[in-house]
Amino acid sequence: MPDMEWQSALRDLMDEYRSRCLWFLRPDYYPEGEEEAEQVLRAIERHGDRAAFQRSARIRQWLSPTSNATSAGS
Length: 74
Description:
Helices cover 64% and strands 0% of the residues. The protein has helices at residues 3-21, 34-47, 50-63.
């Protein structure tokens, strides 16, 4: 998925679950990179419902599709 699509999906998810899962973040905060996005997704998975968990898992797959590949040291 192109960057703009996963970022849009993440923004939508954050907007929907901000009051329940991301209450500790500024109201205008959106992640600027993949590392920040991962932190937000973990918070949503930890504090959200099943639907939030499933949506965050889909977004995480789009973020780093090669992260599950075998490393060079393996």
